[in-house]
Amino acid sequence: MDRIRLAIWTFMLLLFSVTIWGDEIYFRSLGVKDGLSQPSSIAIWQDRLGRIWLGNNAVNCYDGVSTKVIRLSEYFPSLEDANIHNFCGNDSTLYLLAENNLICIDLQMRQPFMPEITATAICYSDNQLYTVEGHSLYRCNVRSGEKEILFSDERYVFTLITPIDDNQFWIGTTTGVLRVDLTEKRIITTCFQEENITTQFLDSESRLWLSAKSGLAAVVSLNGESIVLNDSGGSSIPYIHCFTEDTRGIIWVGTLAGLYRIEMKTNGIPEIMSNQPYMAETSITALFTDRQGNLWIGPYYGDIRYGNIDLDDFKCFYSDEKVEDRLHGTVIGSMAEDKEGNLYVASEGSGINVLNKNREVIRHITKTTHRLPDNKIRALWYDEQTDNLFISVYKNGLYVLDRKTDRIRQIDFSFFDSASQLTIEDIVPYRDMLVLPSTQGIFKLDRENLYTSYLLDDSLLQQKCSGNIRTVYIDDKDRLWVSSLEEGLFSVDLKSQKVISLYGDGLQKGSRIPSAVNSICGDSRNGLFMSTLNSGLLLYNEERNDFSSYREHDHFLLSDVCYSVTRSFYRNLVVTTDKGVSILDMSVKKKPLSAFHIPLSNLPAPLSLSGDCGIYVSPMDRNVYVGTICGLFSFNEQNLNRPGRNYSLFFSSISVNNQLLTPANSDFLQQDITFSRKIKLPYNLNTISLTFSTSNYLLSNYGQYEYKMEGLDELWITTSNRTITYSSLRPGKYNLIVRELDNPQNEVQLEIIIMYPFWLSWPMILLYVCGTISIIAWLVWFNKTKTRLMLSLEMKKREVEQMDKLNRDNQQFLTNISNEFRKPLTVIIAILNNIVADAAVVAGKNRIGKVLKQVVYLQGLITRLQTFNREEQEDVAFSFENPVCDAESPVEEVIETEDNTLYTMLIIDSDSEIRASLKETFSFAYRLIEAEDVKEGYLIALRELPDIILSEIDMADGSGIELCRMIKSHVDTLHIPVILMTYQPSPEQQIQSIRSGADDYVVKPFFMDLLQHRCNSLVRNSKRILSRYIKQKEEQEYVPLLATNVQEKRLLDTATRVLEEHLEDPEFDIAHWAKCMGMGRTSLFNQIKMVTGMTPNDYIVSFKMDRAKLLLSDESCCPIAEVAYRLGYSDPIYFSRTFKKHVGVSPMQYRKNMLVSQKEEVS
């Protein structure tokens, strides 16, 4: 697997890097996978935004993210998609040649048009387009299609044109190159008249570089002096296609056989840097240097390459065990540098790699070459004083390499019992000794006599410092910082050898740091920094003895997973993370100002980092060396941190409601979104997706951005994605700002206006305002009119209310007087009736009868007087005629039970005199029970179960109507007749009495004989119905009286039998009952409801409650829970609630009442 991995890494690095004349250049590629129409290019040009335009079989525009293709044949059917070359232009228009036809592309509209102009070559200078064709040089007006001849010479055929300045041009011809002055209309210089010039390029020093069809290559100065680089036939450089100049003044030459580089020496003589070209297998047809200094290479066939030899200052070393002068090893760890500049690089399994000061691998120190015990190297440290290299070998202790003799010897750890298995994890210099942390503890080594011993004298403290040590560090105050897996982070005073503080590891309870520490660097003056496992970078605050953190979300780090931290040569912090390297600007002590990042994804090869990878800062070449998996890369932070020159940030596309918007397909874009600063959209096109791009093509580009929609967002949003989407924007004005995270000054803005719908437009708003004002004015007028009317009505209402109040007061007075009269009259009538019944002499009876007749007449008058107000309102005639009254003696009728005992009457009235009168009247016919209030009456009714109840309606603790409702709703008392009495009769009260179930309603005062007859009739009818019910119940087991025919009786017999059989089954339900009855649930429901008037569920509950009362009345007194189980209830509490709901009392209270009743019957 390791060999396969190494092979893959090697292939990727070779694919993206190449060494040219000692310089390591890393190119990225651009091909069909990036949207290019064809893997080739014969022309390259950059517009003012920094976008790269490429010509092949189509016009390609690369914006750093994607490539947009313009095929000319789609606009001009007469043209073929081939030979698109000779790009030039200005800020608004790109000019090119398709074969010999001039094509113009409006950059703001991204729309091509073709004037009727042909040319052999074109150039753009001083805001003018110049062309050559045949024997002439022209100035063209592309809008009108006209060409103006500026210079002509029949001796030459013009093929190339290059502007100089001051209205002068270099013109390449089939017979040499001409320098022409258009002001004077003459040829100033003529060179190489026997050569057919095919390529020419003007460098920054106004030197003309040219090549001819014969293979000749030369450079010509303005004064006409020429230097031949290549003779005819191309002896030095093969056939040349193109030239370009980089930011360092070096000329790059694209040829038939690859890429060459020419450097002008101080003596003015050009020198070809090497005879071996880059990309020797490829014909280079186009070269271009953009404003950042990136070199773009267009091959005749193959991907376009681009890179920056100046700013992308990376140097990569990759592992390859098969090649001697390459790095060996999978994991590149600790590094050290000797005084001669040689770099020693430790590896995990391949020994030590040695690189010279030119950073060429010169040798390897391994088991084979130097008799190391193992090739797994854990740590390296170079002692400049003794010129010794200390080497930690996995499970073999410490070795020292004497560079003078190139011999290795082992350090003696004989005082330690397990020295043979000792692994030194790190080598930390401290004064004149080396501190050696290991799993068995921390040791020290005297650098002069190489004597080893324990660092700490205290055995307990030494044990605390053993185990899996992540890192150790000794600061400038002689504090030993130890981070271990078992103990977390803690500090020890090396002078007193006592623990100063414990900080934990983020997992332990009471930890003072958020995560385990992997690496430590710094001092008390400039700050002590610690990299953590997953909490970023910590800064130790010595005054408060706590830590402040710098995290990924603060933009100081690429990731919170940090491996190593160290100081660079320029005193900045270099932190390795799982996503790359972050460099923190520490120009202010103890506080990073900003950060520069090197993402692993931007490196020329797909490298990765781990906790075992090392980092080293060279004091000689000032570079930072970072070990990786299967490789090593270095950089100079100052070179990388230089801001790239001349690049832009711009919007490249916009989609609205998932539809791409362009000037061609939309009226909302007057020009391409790249050049737009404002866009107006209707209210229903409010889901916007914008893509932005940058013309920063450097490998060191961080690629992190932040954006904010002013008018919507309050905070900046960080992103690495180049697409921003906002959904369902409300109508209004917004301003979208996008800027680079590490360079906030570089930003792009777009004003977005979501227009209001027409019903929210200004005319409509004005209409709404006018309408609202009109409505408000009408409401004001209406309210004033209404107020005046209301005041008038209020006065009339008050008058009516005063009259009504007076009438109510009169009526209340009459009612109160009537009630006061009624009470004594009721008592008088009762007494007179009793006297008449007891009188022995007829004459006495007649006289008392006359008195009684007048009393009854007086009662009628009082009744008439009480209802006077109502009758007056109803226009009923009020009469004081004498009521018909029969004052004969009342008939004393006694009704008895079957066992010749009297029936029981319960009299409920709060007035004791009324109770006494009624008791005197009914004492001969009934066994009388009295109650003073509703509560007492109800309890007596449940206990005594009287045969009839007389109750007053108006009592202090409640209403007799409510008492009647309670009695009629209870299963044990619902058959008892109830007569309600009142002093204040009214139709409403009478209706309520009937609805509550009252059997009769009488008004005081009343005729005692009539009341007696009513009571007797009600008792007699009640007993007759009850006896019939009991008789049928004895004959038929629980068959209701509602069974009026044989079919209904048979149905109820079957239903009762099924219920009896499943009485104790708690799972028995309606579905089971219907199944046992042989019918469906709906049919059972309809038939039971029709016969009994109850639903099946109510019928089951009623049946079980009757059985419960029988069981509770049984003298055996089984527990309530047993009664519940015997009736099929699995929950006794639920049974008790159901019983109380249907019977009115709890099962326990019912049992007590029954026992009391049985005792009274026995007594």
Structural description of this entry:
Residues 1053-1153 form the HTH araC/xylS-type domain. Keywords: DNA-binding, Membrane, Phosphoprotein, Transcription, Transcription regulation, Transmembrane, Transmembrane helix. The chain crosses the membrane at residues 759-782. It comes from Parabacteroides segnis. This is Helix-turn-helix domain-containing protein. The structure is a single chain. This protein is α+β, with helices and mostly antiparallel strands. The chain is built from 19 helices and 74 strands. The protein has a 5-stranded mixed sheet with strand order 61-67-66-63-64, with no helix packed on it. Mean pLDDT is 84; it is low at 1-23, 873-892 and 1034-1042.
| Order of the strands making up the biggest sheet | 61-67-66-63-64
Tell how many strands the DSSP assignment holds.
74
Residues in helices, as a percent range: 25-40%
Apparent shape: elongated
- Number of helical regions: 19
Q: Uncertain regions: pLDDT < 50 for 5+ in a row? A: 1-23, 873-892, 1034-1042
- How confident overall, as mean pLDDT? 84
Any idea what the radius of gyration is? 57 Å
The structure class reads: alpha+beta
Largest sheet: 5 strands, mixed
What oligomeric state do these chains adopt?
Answer: single chain
Distance linking N and C termini: 107 Å
Indicate the proportion of strand residues: 25-35%
Protein name: Helix-turn-helix domain-containing protein
InterPro entries: CheY-like_superfamily, HisK_dim/P_sf, Homeodomain-like_sf, HTH_AraC, HTH_AraC-typ_CS, Ig-like_fold, Reg_prop, Sig_transdc_resp-reg_receiver
Keywords: DNA-binding, Membrane, Phosphoprotein, Transcription, Transcription regulation, Transmembrane, Transmembrane helix
Organism: Parabacteroides segnis
